[in-house]
Write a structure and sequence with these properties.
The complex is a heterodimer of chains A (232) and B (386).
Chain A (H helix, E strand, L loop, with lengths): L1 E10 L2 E11 L4 E5 L6 H9 L6 E6 L9 H7 L1 E4 L11 H8 L14 H6 L16 H14 L4 E5 L7 H18 L2 E5 L3 H4 L4 E6 L2 E7 L5 H7 L3
Parallel strand pairs in A: 3-7, 3-8, 5-6, 6-7
Antiparallel strand pairs in A: 1-2, 1-4, 8-9
Chain B lengths: L1 H32 L6 H22 L7 H23 L8 H21 L2 H21 L5 H31 L1 H4 L19 E4 L2 E4 H23 L1 H11 L1 H6 L4 H26 L6 H16 L4 H19 L2 H5 L4 H9 L3 H18 L15
Antiparallel strand pairs in B: 1-2
Classes of the chains: A alpha/beta (232), B mainly alpha (386).
The structure holds adenosine-5'-triphosphate (ATP) and magnesium ion.
The site of adenosine-5'-triphosphate (ATP) has 11 residues of chain A, from α1.
Chain lengths: 232, 386
């Protein structure tokens, strides 16, 4: 589904990602772990096209996307839930959700929010006319995931969806992501610090200093790896 | 005296109305892309010239249709300036995003070019430019379908640019030689032009001892239509939603699949089109010339700054306040009102010319911005740093 090869990314002259390779197979959930500041968000931004890599290629659905702009990548079926959620603050919740429709390939003129969104995130239903910026952190996170789903993506890219959120909401978000995968069969690339959530994934990559240093099935996640790469 | 004040207020508001249409365009563009377009005044001027051309066209047609030329002129002025704005954005400004100083210089250059263009435009110039565009962009378009276009692109430009320029220049020179004045005479020249208002806009609505000129009432009505139209467009249409989203968070909007380049081009065209409509309104207030835009651009910027960026209400209040203040001071009405208070009256008499009034209003605005740097209605919350 997604294949990143030999990626090198710089911020100015500081070398952030070094010869990085990573793949997300069709219908699987892949988790990327690593301590703060190793470059996880940078990698996801590069996948979305917000940062241009100096060398390396990114392929999505057997097609090179390295030179495409972010909006074209979104239209190809990559749904992005960024770190910090990036809800558009002075738009209502409903308008934020409707923006998610932009990524659909077939134009829909309907201004209705599909029922399955509310089934996943019931809190949103009563808040449709509130300003996005006025929601709490947990509500914004659910809105951000719902917004990405509105575009019917084939790959969902989640950057620390549980950061700064109370445990009960974390469980809700976890359950929602699991249900999304079961019902739609899409692939997921997840950056996560919570061990419980990490264990939901099929495969993990561990990152250190801008490169992948370990990977494997999450069922074989060893205590040593957990200690080294997760901030628990 | 009271009637004098009322009349002055009315005239001030109608000038404020023109400022408002122009400032709307400027504010939307600035809010979305952070671009300060110094050529906005010249776009207004182009709108006024378009009105003049449309008027002449309808004069030739003659008959009762002439009475309604102004409505067509509005549409044409909008379309022409929107097209110019679109070309400006695609051709120049999009390469300068995130570089405010360069954008300022470039748009200032464009404003000078546009001023000179209307002074010297003639058939030779128009045919030359059209021929050049046809040859150069036509060649680029045909060649861009070759698979190896990216590789040979620089070569194509290096060959086609001088070639098309040469052919266009030679054709122009030849036309100039063979047809002489018929094609080399400027269309407008440097002098001011007068647009004749249709008869239903002449005269005025009598109220008591004085009358409200219909032309000014028309402008106020036009402004209301524009403001409501823009509000509805931004709040209720899909493109309006896209514009608002990109204004607040450009990179996230792109990640959601919003074509930000299209949004930029469309918004710039819309803002420019509004400048054209404002220009059409100006032509009803007095004669227009190549420098007309310069007279309005400073005030228009003041409106945007005082109103606070991104706030429709602020822009409306600021436009009315600045338009009225300018007129009250400039026409001497305020000085007349204050005759009982001798020293104040002297001060305002001193400022009672159009240019001196601008000085005073400018000083007042600077004082105001010291107190409220964010404008009348500053943005609250997270969008401020965007
Ligand atoms: N805009 C920027 N300009 C310069 N350096 C940056 C920028 N953004 C991030 N960095 C640097 O790049 C490195 C990687 O940052 P990144 O945000 O990708 O880390 P992360 O793995 O997502 O961390 P966290 O777990 O805290 O979210 C950091 O050292 C950071 O200081
Ligand atoms: Mg991060």
């Amino acid at each position: 589904m997604l294949q990143v090869s030999n990626l090198n990314v710089y911020y100015g002259e500081s070398h952030i990602l070094r010869d990085l390779d990573l793949g997300v197979p069709m219908g699987q959930m892949v988790c990327l772990i690593g301590r703060n500041g190793v470059g996880k968000t940078t990698l996801l931004k590069t996948i979305m096209g917000l940062i241009k890599p100096r060398t390396g290629t990114i392929n999505f659905a057997n097609q090179p996307i390295t030179d495409l702009s972010p909006d074209k990548r979104a239209k190809l079926g990559i749904g992005y839930v960024p770190q910090g959620r990036e809800i558009i603050p002075r738009l209502t919740v409903k308008e934020n959700l409707l923006l998610g429709l932009e990524a659909r390939r077939s134009r829909t003129n309907s201004q209705e929010i599909p029922e399955e969104i509310f089934a996943l995130f019931p809190v949103l239903q009563s808040m449709l006319s509130r300003m996005g910026g006025d929601l709490s952190g947990g509500q914004q996170q659910q809105l951000a995931i719902a917004r990405a789903l509105m575009g019917r993506p084939q790959l969902l890219v989640l950057d620390e969806p549980t950061e700064g959120i109370q445990p009960s909401i974390i469980l809700e978000i976890e359950a929602a992501v699991r249900r999304i995968i079961e019902s739609t069969g899409i692939s997921v690339l997840l950056v996560e610090q919570h061990l419980h959530f990490v264990r939901q994934a099929d495969w993990y990559y561990a990152m250190q200093k801008g490169g992948i240093v370990a990977s494997g099935a999450t069922s074989e996640l060893s205590q040593d790896v957990i200690q080294r790469f997760l901030a628990v | 005296m009271i009637t004098g004040l009322f009349e002055a207020l009315f005239n001030g508001i109608s000038i404020g109305a023109v400022l408002l249409i122009a400032a709307l365009g400027l504010a939307i563009v600035f809010g979305l892309m952070g671009v300060i377009n110094l050529a906005h005044g010249e776009l207004m001027m182009l709108g006024a010239y378009t009105t003049f051309v449309v008027q002449n066209g309808f004069k030739i047609l003659g008959g009762p249709l002439f009475e309604f030329y102004i409505l067509f002129a509005l549409v044409f002025a909008f379309l022409v300036t929107a097209a110019v704005g679109f070309i400006l954005e695609r051709g120049v400004i999009r390469y300068l995003y995130g570089r405010p100083l360069e954008t300022l210089l470039a748009t200032w250059g464009v404003s000078l070019i546009l001023q000179q263009f209307v002074r010297s435009v003639n058939w030779v110039l128009v045919i030359g430019i059209a021929l050049f565009c046809l040859l150069f962009f036509g060649a680029m378009w045909i060649l861009s379908r070759r698979p190896d276009f990216q590789r040979i692109r620089n070569w194509v430009v290096a060959v086609m640019l001088p070639l098309s320029l040469g052919i266009a220049g030679a054709t122009g020179a030849f036309l100039g030689q063979s047809f002489q004045l018929a094609v080399t005479q400027p269309w407008f020249g440097a002098q001011n032009l007068d647009v004749t208002a249709p008869s239903w806009l002449r005269g005025g609505l009598p109220i008591g001892s004085f009358q409200l000129p219909y032309a000014r009432l028309f402008i106020i009505g036009l402004t209301i239509v524009c403001v409501v139209g823009i509000y509805v467009f931004l709040q209720l249409t899909p493109w309006g939603l896209r514009i608002r989203a990109v204004t607040q968070n450009r990179s996230m909007s792109a990640c959601l699949g919003i074509p930000t380049e299209k949004v930029d081009a469309l918004t710039f065209a819309l803002g420019s089109g509004l400048a054209g409509v404002a220009g059409c309104a100006i032509s009803l207030l007095g004669s227009v010339g190549p420098n007309t835009g310069q007279n309005y651009i400073v005030d228009t910027f003041m409106v945007v700054v005082v109103g606070g960026v991104g706030k429709l209400v602020g822009t409306i209040v600021a436009a009315m306040a600045i338009g009225t203040a300018n007129y009250l001071i400039g026409s001497g009405t305020l000085a007349l009102l204050l005759t009982p208070v001798k020293p104040l009256a002297d001060i305002f008499t001193f400022f009672a010319t159009t240019s001196m009034a601008k000085v005073l209003v400018f000083a007042l605005i600077i004082a105001f911005l010291q107190v409220r740097p964010g404008g009348i209605f500053p943005q609250k919350g997270r969008t401020v740093d965007a």
